[in-house]
Specification:
Two copies of one chain form a homodimer. Chain A is α+β, with helices and mostly antiparallel strands. Chain A contains nine helices and 20 strands. In chain A, the strands form four sheets. Chain A has an eight-stranded mixed sheet with strand order 13-14-16-15-17-18-19-20, sandwiched between helices. In chain A, strands 3, 6, 9, 10, 11 and 12 form a six-stranded antiparallel sheet that branches. In chain A, a hairpin with a 2-residue loop joins strand 11 and strand 12. The longest helix of chain A has 20 residues. Chains A and B meet through helix 1, strand 4, strand 10, strand 12 and strand 13 of A and helix 1, strand 4, strand 10, strand 12 and strand 13 of B. Strand 13 of chain A pairs antiparallel with strand 13 of chain B.
Chain lengths: 391, 391
């Protein structure tokens, strides 16, 4: 009892001390340098890592790989470890972690976190430039709904995220629809959280750069109903190893999504008013769906596309691919758009795909951005692609 | 360059090691004992704290206070610290942290976290009993929307969370509306995350225990538009010190919310089909709003009510309180419902309030639960109150 009580008093003294210090982290200075802080008086080593630091080339067993930088933080007399970036950060949404005696943790003082598949990171935004599209600004805001649709093809109820633009609820008009797909291991939350899709669409529409449109974000893994924690499987830990994303079943069942949206929202329900885009595995899904159903979508956006499964899966999606692609382009899509980062791990395969399109004479628009296979690029790709739609 | 490269290799070896270990945390055993694990080979002390441990009485400068228990974790040969609860845990939604060399962190292996005002905790659910209401079960699911309403009284666009029950989108019928308010420092996310309102309503409705209803969750702090990170103020760090929750402005402006919902949803737009409830400060808001506007709500649910600000603020809400309360009860509300935990810090003030109602002869229903001023109780209160509505 005495021991418990003492432990309690110690713990209370500790907490009171932490509260008294009022540690602020991250602190974004007026010149956009950023200070990170962690109260950890007993730790022997605290480091910072994240995409707010210069990347480094690391020799691994797979070859030379680009990894997030790591810097040491310095402890002050009150037990607060600190690091300030030597230079202002460019406008961007950044993510970071602390390494406290080697263990990777989020910043306990920053309530803003984003899950990327199986890892949660602390995040902050440096405004200005393109990053102003990622911020909540004082503009009319659309509505974001999480709802469930019935997929007869998959025999499941599944979860969707739907953005309706500001004014949708007020008016009686009909709207075009943009279907937006995530990558391997992601889910129907990915574009809203890491992708900042709500903010990008609100801002582009408010600036008159994009048409008001409905945006539908699906879950591309057909072995689950919903994102981790949102299905009856409970608070599961997500993995990137999800067979239901690569077997063609998602692509084959996609008309169920379109039918649901066309019967539950005031849509312009024709090909001319439907767009489809996706990142990585979602880029592959976009190729496959737009090719399989050439009368559904007039716009296809392929961001850092993933490559088809090998060996080929047994799905109609991978049968008569060349013939279906020929039909798709015979029908002259309004826009077939491909974007990739210059150091993306799929750069070469994507170049091969573009070369094949060139050889066939299939027209497409190509955008190359800096950097690799990252959300930084997919936010840029979305910001560039959405303004092209439904014009 | 050499140093950087070495650091890179070390970091990689570390990460590879952590990946190889495949640390699972929390691990819920078949008998509902739970094992927590943290890979931190260089830490000298790792502890677990949270409401999954027995609470302890701690002597503080404010007197004897109930605080979450703290236990030491034990390191194995591979650098993984571990603790297993000696007994099975009762069905509940639990939250916890690790203390790594004194610094409080979330569990890096558990992507499921919930923010409570300014602190993010790791969470898990032990199913069974009442906690089955908090789980996503294989039942029809309602839709949860985040949208913005215009408040002429406050001169702001403000964010709302709205739950519409399964079937709302399919049918053409009209629904009753339940307005559900958060406590001090909370926001329009609180009932959805910590309160598990979506799951509780989905499950109660699926079991036939609650009527299908729309649930509207507001932001009760009129100096902000929205939850942290969701307004143009950016990724701010929330605080409990929010003057806009206690000045009567939220209560006075509440008809703006009701008007918005009645014009944007298929509601049964009369007193008989409107309920209002809230926790802590939201319990005070519920008293105030239902008294100020006695023709709006037929049901008032007051969970662990907060006490009026002192000195009295200059708001019509705090003028002629007795007279307004008399009018409210003259109109015979269908249900005036008060619930509180036996060790709630507001227990005595609430008893005084009930005694006043008794003396006046104003009828109400009273529920007492175990424990204190916690979300555990507010989930129980919601689960008990919602089935009483609109019958």
């Amino acid at each position: 009892m005495t021991i418990l009580l003492l432990a309690g008093i110690t713990a209370f003294a500790r907490q009171a001390s932490e509260e008294r210090l009022q540690v602020v982290s991250p602190e974004i200075h007026n010149d956009n340098r950023v200070t990170f802080r962690l109260w950890a008086p007993q730790a022997t080593c605290v480091q910072l890592t994240g995409d707010c630091l210069p990347a480094r080339q690391v020799q691994t067993s797979y070859g030379l790989e680009e990894q997030a930088g790591v810097v040491d933080m310095v402890k002050n007399a009150e037990g607060v470890w600190e690091y300030t970036t030597p230079r202002p950060l460019e406008p961007e949404l950044y993510s970071y972690y602390f390494l406290i005696d080697g263990a990777r943790i989020t910043d306990p003082r920053n309530v803003h976190t984003i899950r990327d598949v199986a890892v949660v990171a602390s995040v902050f935004i440096i405004g200005g430039g393109r990053a102003d599209l990622y911020r909540v600004n004082d503009v009319p805001h659309g509505t974001v709904s999480r709802l469930w649709y019935d997929s007869p093809a998959l025999g499941m109820r599944r979860r969707l995220t739907v953005y309706t633009p500001a004014g949708y609820e007020e008016g009686g008009g009909r709207y075009p629809v943009f279907y937006l797909l995530h990558g391997t291991g992601g889910d129907e939350e990915a574009w809203i959280t890491l992708g900042r899709a709500t903010q990008i669409m609100d801002n582009l529409i408010a600036q008159g750069k994009a048409e008001p449109m409905i945006v539908v974000m699906t879950n591309g893994n057909t072995v689950v109903e919903a994102a981790p924690g949102e299905s009856s499987a409970g608070f599961i830990i997500p993995t990137s190893d999800q067979p239901g994303m690569r077997d063609g079943s998602f692509e084959m069942s996609f008309p169920d999504v379109v039918n649901f949206i066309d019967t539950h929202y005031r849509t312009l329900a024709d090909k001319r008013h439907r767009a489809l885009a996706g990142l990585s595995m979602g880029g592959l899904h976009t190729k496959n769906i737009s090719r399989e159903y050439p009368d559904l979508f007039d716009y296809a956006g392929i961001f850092s596309p993933g490559i088809p499964p090998s060996p080929k899966v047994d799905s109609p999606i991978y049968e008569q691919v060349e013939e279906k692609l020929a039909i798709q382009f015979e029908k002259r899509p309004a826009c077939y758009w491909i974007a990739i980062g210059k150091t993306d791990k799929r750069y070469r395969e994507n170049k091969d795909y573009c070369q094949m399109l060139d050889e066939k004479g299939y027209p497409y628009t190509y955008m190359e951005t800096e950097g690799g296979h990252t959300w930084r690029n997919w936010r840029i790709h979305l910001s560039a692609f959405a303004p092209l739609l439904f014009k």
